[in-house]
Amino acid sequence: MDEAALIRAAQAGDQDAFERLVRDYDQSVLRLAMNLLRSPEDAHDVYQEAFLRVFRNLPNFRFDCNFNTWLYRIVTNLCLDHLRKKKVRKTESAVVETEDGPLDRLDAVAEERASSDPQRALLSTEIRGRIQEVLAGMTARERMVFEMRHFHGMRLRAIGESLGTTEEAAKNCLFRATQKMRSALGEFV
């Protein structure tokens, strides 16, 4: 069953069709919320609220845009609302305290491709850390646009629609975010 047929079936009340839609998009929704909010608890809250809103509003979905654009717009709006309520950009430290002392979470993630070359492993860790720093320093909108474009492969028009703005505004925001990333990673690239 293609996505349009799946959506129509879910609109008609088919619970299996709705569950399949959730399964098809659950990881990307959770990843987007996690990357924007930087908190697993907050991301799971947004994830649940997003699919609850999809369930409530699916009968009103008119196929004016792609389903994923509509869904990502719901998620980004919920994330923006959540960030506005907090009034501060909370970032979770990559370093956590353990019984054995401080542990950098990024070091705990094995990168098999670089494991045979210690220099490459060190460089990967440095780049990953720098990327996380730059993402944390971006505005919420810049981070969303950068995430949608580079991690989800969305087109600028779809990003603009998801954020309720124009393609040109999304393009300008992506340009600013990319410039920040380039200047921070200049020595590596």
How is the secondary structure organized here?
Layout: H1 3-11, H2 15-37, H3 40-57, H4 67-86, E1 95-98, E2 101-104, H5 105-108, H6 118-137, H7 140-150, H8 156-163, H9 167-185
Antiparallel strand pairs: 1-2
Structure description:
The protein is mainly alpha-helical and 189 residues long. It has a domain at 1-92: RNA polymerase sigma factor, region 2, helix turn helix motif (Rna Polymerase Sigma Factor, Chain: A, Orthogonal Bundle), CATH 1.10.1740.10. 70% of the residues lie in helices and 4% in strands. It is built from nine helices and two strands. The chain has helices spanning 3-11, 15-37, 40-57, 67-86, 105-108, 118-137, 140-150, 156-163, 167-185, and strands at 95-98, 101-104. It has a two-stranded antiparallel sheet. Helix 8 (156-163) packs across helix 9 (167-185). The N and C termini lie far apart (44 Å).
